[in-house]
Each structure stands twice: as C-alpha cells, then as structure tokens.
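Lab notebook, bench 4. Still working through the backlog of constructs that have no structural model yet. Next entry is a single chain of 99 residues. Request: give me the structure tokens for it.
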Amino acid sequence: MTTSTETDTVVKTQVKEPGLWNVILYNDNQTSMEFVVLVLMQVFHKNFEESSQLMMQIHEHGHGVAGVYPYEIALHKQEDVIYSARAHGYPLRCEIQEA
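Model written out:
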C-alpha cells in the first residue's frame, strides 16, 4: 500500500505601497516671485491663487512643499523645476525629501 502526503504551502505576499516624497522649493534673493508662481502653475498644475499663496509661504518661511508624489514623479518634477529655472537664469533650489 502506497500513501502520499501532499503539503500545501501558503505564501503570503505583502505589497508595500511606494513611499511618497515631498518636492520642496526654497526661497532665494534672485528668483522672482512671478517665476515661482509660474513654475507652480506649469510644473505642479496649481491654479493662480494656490500658486500665489504657496509662493508667499516659500518667501516668508524660506521653503514650502510644492507637492507630494511617488519617488519617480517627485524626481521628475524636481528636474523640471531646476531645468526651467536655469533656462531662465534663476538659481531656484528644489529638493525632494521622503514624506
């Protein structure tokens, strides 16, 4: 008589949500407020009022979070900001930090 034993193995897989990253703009004495508003509207798709309010926060507090995105998108936004700023002769600083 032959007996066989079957063993079922249950594998639990946890899918980890991708981490979010803050895209931060920093105030400086050379980049115009109008340009910061323009960047917030073009790169981060904010309306004029939101962009103006955030620009004032950046101006008054030295920095502000322009948006929160998954890493690859945050990195792309950072690159867009820096490229646009340099193309217009501004030293606008933009960094990403894990949220």
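Notes after review: The two ends are 63 Å apart (CA to CA). The first strand starts at residue 20 and ends at 26. Flag for follow-up if needed.
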